[in-house]
């Protein structure tokens, strides 16, 4: 899995603070903290695989991901009490899914980010953007095999169908981001459908309109909004984007580079 946009889970006002230029000093830490070298090194590997494409391999920002070393949330974090929940819970509405990472991996990411913040505080220099070379290390044939096999991508996508010309429309980092976080559509809503089975046995299907622990609602083919107490009906939700969210937890860094290399051939 990649990552994700850690700071995408933050309020807009906080995101604005994290996007400050590299010439500005990082905010001071609320709590001074140090981490074992082994944990930091582990965090470097995990961060590179999960978050490096967007936030840069050194957590100092990329073309779309904010600079985590200058984030006020990082400064306010105490051994993962702020960053940890963001990594685990995500914010799907802002493009960041929840990740089921083992606790040691989350702790390692936190350790690495804090250590990078420490390094930035002791040296000067500006952050480079993500290099194109970082996105050109994959193997096309291995990516094709993963697409058609273990990745399961071919179950929903076709290089001569919906993906035809995708590398002409999107290049580099934008193509990678669309691969990992597909656009839900113009409305911004997840294209999920739901089938509700009433106690009578009748079934009603439509676009998912609302769902929480108390209520399930849909908009049927005629455009009518219909809702039921969730405890009084049976229902099944089909969201075609769930496969992408699940895949984020399965990708290795090599897998992502390989699939990206393959997608770049679809012109």
Relative helix content: 25-40%
Estimate what percentage of residues fall within beta strands: 5-15%
What integer value in Å does the Rg equal?
21 Å
The CATH first-level class of the largest domain comes to: Mainly Alpha
β-strand number = 5
Distance between the termini: 25 Å
Q: Which structural class should the secondary elements be placed in?
A: alpha+beta
Q: Give start-end ranges of low-pLDDT stretches.
A: 1-23
What global shape is seen? globular
What would you say the CATH architecture of the largest domain is?
Orthogonal Bundle
CATH superfamily of the largest domain: Cytochrome c-like domain
Strand arrangement in the largest pleated sheet? 4-3-2-1-5
Largest sheet: 5 strands, antiparallel
Tally of DSSP helical segments: 11
Helix/strand order, N-terminal first:
HHHHHHHHHEEEEEHH
Highlighted features:
267 residues, alpha+beta, Cytochrome Bc1 Complex, Chain D, domain 2, SH3 type barrels, 5-stranded antiparallel beta sheet, 11 helices, 5 strands, 36% helix, globular
3D architecture notes:
- There is one protein chain.
- It is built from eleven helices and five strands.
- The chain has helices at residues 12-18, 37-50, 52-55, 72-76, 83-89, 103-121, 140-148, 166-169, 172-180, 242-248, 253-263; strands spanning 192-197, 203-211, 215-219, 225-229, 234-239.
- The protein is globular and about 65 Å long.
- The model is unreliable at 1-23 (pLDDT under 50).
- Helix 2 crosses helix 6 (103-121).
- It has three domains: 6-121, Cytochrome Bc1 Complex, Chain D, domain 2 (Orthogonal Bundle); 134-180 and 244-263; 192-239, SH3 type barrels (Roll).
């Amino acid at each position: 899995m990649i990552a994700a946009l850690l700071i995408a889970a933050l309020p807009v006002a906080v995101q604005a603070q994290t996007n400050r230029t590299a010439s500005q000093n990082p905010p001071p830490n609320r709590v001074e903290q140090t981490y074992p070298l082994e944990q930091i090194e582990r965090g470097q590997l995990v961060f590179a695989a999960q978050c490096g494409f967007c936030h840069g391999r050194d957590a100092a920002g990329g073309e779309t991901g904010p600079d985590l070393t200058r984030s006020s949330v990082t400064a306010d974090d105490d051994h993962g009490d702020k960053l940890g929940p963001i990594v685990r819970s995500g914010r799907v509405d802002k493009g960041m899914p929840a990740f089921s990472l083992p606790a040691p991996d989350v702790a390692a990411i936190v350790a690495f980010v804090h250590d990078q913040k420490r390094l930035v505080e002791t040296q000067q220099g500006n952050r480079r953007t993500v290099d194109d070379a970082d996105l050109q290390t994959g193997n096309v044939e291995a990516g094709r095999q993963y697409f058609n096999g273990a990745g399961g991508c071919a179950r929903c996508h076709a290089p001569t169908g919906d993906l035809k010309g995708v590398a002409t429309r999107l290049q580099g980092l934008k193509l990678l981001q669309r691969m990992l976080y597909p656009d839900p559509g113009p409305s911004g809503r997840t294209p999920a459908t739901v089938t509700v089975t009433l106690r009578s046995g009748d079934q009603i299907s439509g676009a998912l309109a609302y769902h929480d622990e108390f209520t399930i609602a849909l908009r049927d083919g005629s455009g009518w909004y219909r809702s039921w107490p969730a405890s009084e009906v049976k229902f099944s939700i089909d969201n075609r984007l769930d496969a992408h969210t699940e895949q984020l937890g399965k990708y290795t860094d090599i897998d992502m580079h390989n699939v990206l290399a393959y997608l770049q051939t679809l012109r």
